[in-house]
Each structure stands twice: as C-alpha cells, then as structure tokens.
Amino acid sequence: MSRCFHELYGKKVNVIGRKAIGVVSDSKIINFKEVPDFETKEGFVKALNEYASERKEEKILLIGTSDELVRLIVENKDSLDKKYVHNYPNLDILNKVLVKDMFYEAFKDSNLDMPKTYVYECGSRQVIQEEIIQEFMYPLILKPGNSVEYHNHRFEGMYKVYKVFSKEELLEAIKKIEASGYKENLVIQEFIPGDDCALFDSIFYCGKDKKVKLMTFAQIGLQERNPTGIGNCTFLVNGFDEHGYKEEIIYNLKEFMEEIGYQGFAEFDLKYDERDGKYKVLEINPRQARSSYYLAACGHNLVKYLIDDLIYNKDIETTLMKDKMVLSFVPKSVIKKYVTSEPLRKEALDLIKQKKIVNPLKYKKDKSIKRRLYLFMKDLNYKKKYKTLSW
Fold it and tell me: Can you give the pLDDT at residue 298?
C-alpha cells in the first residue's frame, strides 16, 4: 500500500506499527514510527490522535494492513480524530466476515458455496461426535474461529491452519490450542482435495455507497510454507483459470457483497472442488491482502480508489479487471519447479517472457543497498523453504 501511495505522489508514506519488520525498516519510501502497544485499544487511539494533532491536513487517509488493525479502526472510529477517513464495514458485518465460525453460520443460506463445517467451543469439553468426523472424512482442516484472538495466544508448534489426518491428531491440536489460553471457537472443516493450484484469489473494492467498483479473479499456484504463513499467497496469475474463466462466479460474489452492504476492500479465498466443479469460499479477509498489488500493476492503484472515493467523492464505474498478470514473491526457478499445474505454470512462464510480472517488494525507486541485500536473501530463503518444507 505504501508503494501504491508513492507511485501516485512520489512522497514517503507515514506508517505506524508495533514493530518494524525487514520489508518496512529497510524501505526508503516509508517513515516508520514504532509504537510497542499499538495493537491495544489505548495505544492505538493515543498514537493516532497524537499523529493527527501534529498534521495540518484536513483529511488523513487511514489504511489498516492486518485483521487486528482493521478491527481496531472499526471498534474505535468514534474515538479517533475526525480528520481520519477510511472505508470499512460496520462492526456487525466485520464480525460476520472476520470471525470464521460466525461467517459460516451467518451466510450458510447465502449464494456462496462453502465447505462442510463444524464448530468446536474451546474450554467446553465438547465431545466431537464420531458421526460428524465420519461425514467429513480425513484429512480435516482445523483453524481458529477468531484469528485476531488466536494470535494473541502464541505457543510453540502454532499453525495458522492445521491439516490433521486422524482423530488423535485432531484432539492433540485442540488440546494445545486450549492450553494456550485461547477461549474462542475452533472451526473443523472438510479438506477439499487439491494442492495450492486449486486455490483462487478474488479481490473486491466496494465504495462508501456499498456498491462494487472493482473485481478480480486469479488462480494461485503457491502459498507460504512456514506454519504461521499458510494461506498467504506467494504466486498467482490474474485473469486465468485452468478450468475455464467463468465470469458468473465473480458476479455471484459481487451480488453477495452488495446484499450484505459491504464497504472497502475484501479478499475472497476460494478453492476449486473437483468433486462437484464448485468454487468453495474458505474465508473473506476484510481488507486488501499482501498479494493485492497486482491490481496496481494492471493500472488500478488501490490507494487511488480510496482517495477518489473518500476524498474527492468521484463516481467510480464498476470494473472486472481481467488483465493477465503474474504476481510473485518467489524467484522464477521456484515457479518452474514447484507449481504443479502444467497449464498454470505454462501461462505464467509465457507472461513472464512478456514482462507481465510484478513483485510488490521490488520497486525501482526503493533500492537501497540494505534492501537489495535483504530481498536477495529473501529469494534464497524461498528456494530453501520450498525444497525442505511442505504442507
């Protein structure tokens, strides 16, 4: 998002966060302010209001880049300086989207296709009925209902999402999570067959008028391999689907977004189910994702959408962005070796030859020696991770 802003205005971006990780601390386009308690209500409100009091601007665009920060913006909007403008759904909609067990329950009768789901209440000593597990069959997916609360209770052997192959593994994972102090619900879900190439990414921008302005649909080929990064895309191709690009799927998602009155950016995580040919919604992230820069690479700058909508009150026409573009955080050699779908791999390599590829972190105006070294080492690490880790 900082790159989007810099490409628009050529100015450094002010970023406030709990801690500066490598991609931020070595960037020349960012002014970073570290606030250790920034992800608490008190620290968040205090830091932002102090920042606003120092600024002469009449309006300040506020963008959250994690689930935790989006929740803090929505929950504390009335306590923040009136200079701040942002575009997020109300708290009721946010909870129904962000809290996964609420999501599956709230929208089970909607037009979305979803995996079979069972909710387990932590700390309740709930007995998981054998017939429930038999209906799902192993392997199963286990994940926290409330990811924000889950990440507040870190423990050794923690995974973002668990893939379990037996009842013993399932109960052991639940036991570890409960022991961490996490008291919210867990989601037990059927595993849809297929590897990373069965995953799809669909980004939406809904204006403050709650109408969809921008839509995308991309096939994913690779995810992160580290335990806490599972679910984070590292390679995708927008405008491509090896099963046939079906606009009706995208317009079905559009209809859903407008029916619930959503506002702002959202990312659908979907998986193609070869058993019935349907695209099952795994979750919706109530913000732009870290992989969403491919929209900007295709001429749809994410920050410009927010500014045109919130600052300039422009009418924005609805666009289905079908431009073909490769987004990749990993080196070309990793794509060649580890993308299992031949049609997807071929499409990607053809697009790369046409220079239709972007890595959001590799920006020609942000190339300090430290940053180039950091990104070089990051590429080497990706080669090592894909060789030694699997999920």
Answer: 98
